[in-house]
Every structure is written in C-alpha cells, then in structure tokens.
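Box 3.1. Reading complex inputs
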Amino acid sequence: MELKSRSDTEELPQITVVSRAEAVRSKLIDTFSLIDHLRGLSQAVPRHNLREFLDPSRQRKLMQGDHHQLVRFSVRPTHDRILYGQRQQCRLRVRYNRWAPISLWAGWVLERPFFTNLIIFLIFLNTILLMIEIELVNTKDVKMLPVMLALEVASWFMLLIFILEILLMWLYNFFLFWKSAWNIFDLFVTILSVLPEVVVLSGVSTEALWLQLLRICRVLRSLKLFTRFGQIRVIILALVRALKTMTFLLVLLLIFFYIFALTGIYFFENYTRSDIQDLEYQTYFVDMPNSLVTVFILFTLDHWYALLQDAWRVPGLSKTFSSIYVILWLLLGSIIFRNIIVAMMVTNFQAIRSELWEEATHLAVQHKADIFKRQIIKSRRHHQRDGKAGSKGSGTIHVIPNTSHQFPNPPVSDMTYPENVTKTTVPKDAPSAQENLLSADSPGLVDWETHVHQNLPGLMEMDQDERVVWPRDSLFRYFELLEKLQYNIEERKQLQDFAVKALINLEDN
Amino acid sequence: MDRLPMVFSREHVKEISSSILNLSSPGLWSKIVNFRRKDTEFCEYVKRFIEGHFFSLLMISTISSNALCMVLETYYEIKSNMFLMFEVVEVIFTSIYWFEFYIKLYVDPIGYWKNGYNLLNVVILIIISVPFYMWKLYGRHYQYLNIGEGIQSLRILKLIPYSRGIRTLITALGQTIYTVASVMTLLFLLMFIFAILGFCLFGSSDGGDVNNWGNLAAAFFTLFSLTTVDGWTDLQQDLDEREFTLSRAFTIFFILLGSFVFLSMFVGVMIIHTEDSIKKFEKELANERHIAVLQEKQNILRKQQAEVNRLMQKGKKSEFQTFSELVEGFKKTLRHTDPMVLEDFCTTLPFIDIYLSTLDNQDNTIVKYSYHRKRD
C-alpha cells in the first residue's frame, strides 16, 4: 500500500486517497498508538479500559499492581440506566448480607401503592380538618370542646406519620434523599409544621405573633400534594424550565416597565398635583413604587379607560400625549408582550414533551436494533451453511421485491417468519436460496439496504456493554485487510463503471 | 499600484462631470475617493479599547447609575436637597455618552450608521438634548417641559447592545415584526369601519351618545375599549339608556370579531413565528456544532497523516518504502495470546456481519444485472 508522497524527489507512484481507507488506517494507528511507538516514546500499550478504571474494586487492584499501566479512553455517550441484570445481582448481594437489610425493607414499604395512597389520603384529610378547625377556632361553645380535641389529636397523628415517612426515606438512602428537590421541599414543609409546637413546648409564650403565623404554616402541608402526582410534577418541571429560558424576555419586560413608569410620573405630573376634588386615581402616579403598580395595572388591562378619562378632567394635562402613552403601553405591553410570553411557553412545553418522548422512543429503537442484530446473525449462519453446499452458478433469477417501504411487521412475527420460510424452501441452487433467504430476512417489504440504514444507528448506540476481545495480531491483520478491502472495492467500482460503459456502447452500435 | 488605471478612468469621467459642476480641481476629487486613513495604528488601538471589557463595564455602570439617578430625581425632597449633585452627575453622564458617540464615529465613520444600535444611540442623544433646548427656547414654564423630561427614561435602552442575550432575543423577535404590523393594520382597518358605522348610528348630536361616539377619536377609543374588553359594560349601559335598537348586536358582534377572533389570531400567529425562529436558531446551532466536530475530525486525520509521513521521511535512510514496512518491526512484537478489549463498533461481530452481508448483496445485484443485460 502506498501513501501520497510529499517530496518530489522520490519516485513513489501516486494513487488517489480513498477516504474510508484513510479512516481505517487512522483507526489502526489510534488503536495501537503507533505514532508514539514509532517515535520511540513508549513501548507500552493501553491494556485497560476506562470502565475498568472507574470501577472502584478493579481500580484498587490496578493501583496495587503496576502503577505505570496505560488506560484507553473511549468516549461514548451512555445512558444511565439500571439494567435488570444489575438489579438481580444487587438482590443476590442483599440476600447474602450478614445484617438485616432495613434499607431494603424501607424501600419496599415506600414503593407499595398502599403506602403512597395512604399518604395522599392523609394529606387530603389534613387539609379538610384544618378547614374545620379554622371555622371553630374562636367558638366558646363548650360542646365543641371534644371536637376540637379530636382535631388536635388527628393533626398531631398526621404530623407523626409524615415524619415517619421522611425517616423511612432517610433509611432507604440518605444521600439520594438530598439530591431530589421534591424531597427537600417535603422536609422543609414538615419542619415548618413542627417548629411552632416545638417552640411552644420549650416554653416560649404563645402570644407572639410570629408563632401564630407559624401555626398557619400548617396549611403548607397541603402543598405536599404536588410531589405525589406525576402529572403535576411534569407540569412544574416544565414551568421551571420555561421560566429559565424566558429570563431575557422578563428582563426586557422589566426594562419596559421601568421606562413607562418613569415616563408616566412626568407625563401625569399635572394630574398628580391638581387641586380638583374627587379625582379617583390621583395617587397612582405620585412616585416610583405607585407608578410601577399603575403600569402593572395597565398591563393587565384593568380600568385603563376610566383612568384616562379621569386624567382628562385636569385642564393642564395634554390629551394627546397621555393618550399616546396609554395606547402605546397597551399595545406594546399588554397585547404584544403577553402574546410573546404565551408563544414562548407553548414552544417550551412542546420541547419538553418531545424530550420526554425521546426517552420512550429510545427504548423502542433499542428493541428494534436488538431484533435486527438477531436477524443478521441468523442470516450469516444460514449463508455459511448454504454456501458450503452449492456454488454460485446460474440460477433462476429472482428480483428482490423493492416495492414499498412500509414498516416491518411487529416483532413477534418477525422472529417466526424467517424460520417458516427456511423450512418450506425447497433446496435450490445457492444463489436463489440465498436470495430467498435475504428476501425473507428483510421483513416482507423493505429492501436490504434501507433496512440496514434504518436500524444501523440504533445498533451503534446499543446500551449493552458490548466488548469484544481480540488477539492482538489478529486485530492488526483485520485492520490491514479492511484497508486493502476498501482499495479493492474502489478499484472494482471503477471496473464496473467501465463495464457498464462498454455495455452501453455495445448496445448503441 | 493597480489602482492607478482606475483613478485615471475615474478622473476621466469626473473631468466631464466636474466641469459641469464646476468643482475646483480633479485632484481634490481623486483625493476624496482615495482617502485612506493614515492613523491606522491609533485606530486599531481605539477599536480594541471599544471592544474590550473595560469599556463595556464602564458603559453599563454609567447607564445603570443614570437610571438610578433618574428614579431618585422624582422624589421632590431628595431633589431639592441635593440639587447641585444631580446637576453635576447629569453633566458627567451626558459627557460620557457624547464621548462614546465620538469615539465610535472616529473608528468607523461610514460603517457607524449601518448598525441599528448606533442609530439608537444617536436618537437617545437627541432626546437628551431636547429638554435643554426647550428650556432655552421657551423658558421655564413651557407646558410641554414635563414631556421632555419624561422621555429621558429612554436612556436605559442604551443598555441593550451590551447584553448578548437581549440582543439575540430582539433579533429573534424582530422577525415577527412584519406579522405584528400586518395584524395591527388589519385591526385598525376593522376598527375604522366600525368607528364610522358607530358614529353614524350612535353619534348624532341630537339624542345620540355624543360623549363616546361624537367624533372619530372618541369612537376609536370606545372601540379600543371594546377590543380590550375593559369597562365595556358601562359603555353599553350608556347606549342602552338612550334606547338604540341595534346597539347590543353591534357591541356584541364587534367584541366577538375584535377581541375573540383578532386577538386570538394574534396569539396564534406569534406562536407559529416563535416556533419557527427557535427551530431555525437551534438547527443553526446544531449545524455549527456538527461542522465543528467534522472539522476537528478532519484535522486529526490530517495531523496523523502528517506524522506518519514525517516518520516515513525520517525512515527513508533505512529504505522504508511503504507503511507496512514501517510497522514491520512493530508487527513482530504482536503476540496472539495478548488480549485487547475494545468497545468500538467497527470491531464488533454485528458490524462485520452487516458489512459482509451488504457486500455480498451488492455482488449479487451486480451479477444479476449483468445476467439481465446479457440475456437482452
């Protein structure tokens, strides 16, 4: 194999550089780190993969051994998913554990539907009882006393259960608890509920105002409901993300608020200082905070015409400028900006929904890739078996149906379909059997190349730890042969072009 | 050097026109046409200063403190106590704004006017000088003085060019301007038709509702009030008192058309455009990233090739003709029992299977094709 020479003095034959062959050669150089080797820099070859290095037990073994080992870095985007196999191994480990697995029991309890429904029911009950208690809080009726006592007891009981739930979550996995914002929110709300009682018990007087306020925080317990329902979680997540992307829009809106508030103060100066009695909205533009609130009121399109008509009653105010001000702000702020905000929310929600869909479709694509892989392996096996039997000679010509490009049949029939066809195939010459097989493998209606192209990306990103062990010299030979194959294919393509041209010339003459 | 013929030909043409226009000399014209800056180094220095961090920091802090000062000026007590300080600060701010204008103009006199944000700066400078001239020309008690002071609040718009996020937002929104303008025009037309109709129906000076429908401006306001459905029940009550027959149908029909249909259409149109522009933006980003990645790969390939070539050149002394001979020595060190664990896709069995099957398939197709042709 020859390379393109740079110097003009040497007499190396120049050939066209085939890009795929280039890629294969560069892969070879990369895998064996030939450049370092040829420069004489290092004689070692990376013998370990990144995954071995990151695995803590293996890393310890490595560090105890030779420190000068090289590690090969291969960057592949992996999806963080727990495989079923990992789960089973974990179960095995837990089963043979010396100490009782309390964390496992806690996890089991937390995931029971009975438990989650109980918590939801208790939250609802808490809200209702709180409402009843507020109604009765100031009554002096003696007969109501047992009712109030019962309400108090129920409230304490529910608080206890919420604390218990948090303890269970801590038992299950303490560090994972803090990673989720929902759990921190739960903890915060529960502590807010507990705090007044604890403070009362430790002797502070019950008349302090902030204590009363803290008791009211009990109502926040109903907010715990938000974390339970999946739909609400999705909506809140989408909302937070939408707000994050809209920060600049909100900044722009704030700038406009500022502009119109300041301008309003100056434009309506005569209105603010006028001596006419019964002006309804006279304090609306008196200083900056009021002006900001007024601008917000105009933003929500509330009583703008009444404000304008009231302002017109003052003789010194120029009608044109004030009406220009109000109309401009209505158009710009309330109509245009609000619709821009709506539009951005809609696009954000769509983006978030498509992201959530991507998770689901990823699994589907993986499934298809799996099936594709099985088909290929089967086809190779049959091909090898038939290839030994007959030879490639003349045979009946079948054109592989290139009809339509519908989707393959559902997976189940895919698996059985090739088997049926191979059983009923009459043993013919090799090419026709092979064609039959190939047409049977392509599930019905799609030709081979399209099928491959459809499934190849899924195959390339398969999740499983697909690691192949090669002997070193075979790997080197494989890369060399692959490169030679690329050059041969290129040459063959040229020859075929010539053949086709010759045939066409033959026909023309 | 090669500009000389052009100068001559231009001179030739300009000879005729200048003789018509009676310019002083052809030399002056060629000097104007061929004007090249002689102070390029200083110009470069100033340009770097403008694009540096210090300048933008200076401008941002100036504009923010100016905004804060303007807010404080609205409080009468503060203003009367610290009047002198406000005056001094005002002079400082104005001088900084003029300095920015002159320095940017100096760097690029002709290209300055092509940038929209620079035009905004010029407009704001004009606005800043408005109260001063009002005061000079009309005296202290001019009735429109507060208007002039009011529009000073636009100074904060100078902040926009210094923030990249807002700039991208505005360019994205700017593309929706045409749609917005067309919807607004449509709405205006609709209101115009209904205003004339309402004036004729309800605004006649005897027995009609002169307040709300008396003249065109009032009719427009009333209709705008109906479009934004704020306080329209009061207006409708006014009409009801005078017992017009069609008034309710008129109002309800207009509210349906103007508020429900038009404003919702507005929302829909904006949603479509925002989606389009965001998708375009993201596609551009993805394309850029893709191209950058491809470039990187090409670079790495090229560097590798260069390295190998260099090694081959070095090894010319020992007569290495081809790559395979170069690595001959390396190959000898490879042993069969050494395992290499790879995760790349191109060394996995499915890849080999797929590749060889595809090649076989291609072979078959070619064979069939040639048989086909032979037959015919």
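In summary: Chain B has two domains: 35-162, 172-320+346-355.
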